[in-house]
Amino acid sequence: MTGLELALAALVVFLASCLQGTIGFGLGMLAAPVISLLDPSLLPGSIVLLAAGLTVFGVLRDRTAVDFRGTGWALLGMVPGTVAGALLVSALPPQALALAVAGTVLLAVLLSVCGWQPRPRPAAVAAAGAASGLMGTATAIGGPPMALVWQGFSPARVRGTMSAFFLVGALVSLTALTAVGSIDREVLLFAATLLPAVLLGFVTSSVVNGRLNKALVRRVGLAASTAGAVLVLVQAL
């Protein structure tokens, strides 16, 4: 990866980290398509590593708003989904994973635009947890299912609950990806290089929270995710 490409990746990760720190998700949706364009072999490991660090800060900041009961149901569904996602990573070539990333993002955007809002009952939360575990491990984009099922919560509760869920999910995904040999030295080095961008993005989100129109931030994130997914589709096809 050239210096210019690395700078582009850092900029996107900064924006994605700020977005996730503001609305509870977005790191994978925004950054995964761009990284997939630059080097598909870095996915999903690099994003999962960065998400693990970002969610630690999110839990610490919004810990008083976390819905631990809902997190528990989501984690119950996440385990089988994560195993299925790890098997996909070991079986599919990088190009197929790139297509999976693009398709996942576009589907998530479509559902969000359509305004589908399931009630956060235990069965629905567990099902969303399973879908998130599969998508997060296979494509590094696990946010959309949980965002859909928890979208009726207050902003702080969404951020805190999703951070708690994604922290455990990231650790489980890292264990599964390591077991199938998808976390190598190159992935670790790339994630370490982008860690400062994650930290800066999170700090920025803490400054802008409560000052920006959340609906506008959400629309910007969905638009950027759509553009990135389209670029991935063009390259892969």
Notes on the protein architecture:
By secondary structure, this protein is mainly alpha-helical. The protein has one domain. The protein is built from ten helices and no strands. It has helices spanning 3-23, 27-38, 45-61, 68-91, 94-114, 122-139, 143-149, 155-179, 185-208, 214-236. Helix 1 packs across helix 9, helix 3 (45-61) packs antiparallel against helix 8 and helix 3 packs parallel to helix 9. The protein starts with a helix and ends with a helix.
Could you give a short description of this structure?
This protein is mainly alpha-helical and 237 residues long.
Number of strands: 0
Largest sheet: none
Summed up, the domain count is 1
pLDDT averaged over residues: 85
Query: How big is the Rg?
Result: 16 Å
Query: Structural class of the secondary structure composition?
Result: mainly alpha
Low-confidence stretches: none
Question: Could you spell the SSE succession in H and E letters?
Answer: HHHHHHHHHH
Helical fraction: over 70%
How many helical stretches?
10
Beta-strand proportion: under 5%
The dominant shape is globular
Distance between the termini: 22 Å
SSE diagram, text form:
Blueprint: H1 3-23, H2 27-38, H3 45-61, H4 68-91, H5 94-114, H6 122-139, H7 143-149, H8 155-179, H9 185-208, H10 214-236
Pfam family, one: TauE
Transmembrane segments: 41-60, 72-91, 97-116, 123-142, 162-180, 187-204, 216-234
Organism: Kocuria turfanensis
Relevant terms:
237 residues, mainly alpha, transmembrane, membrane
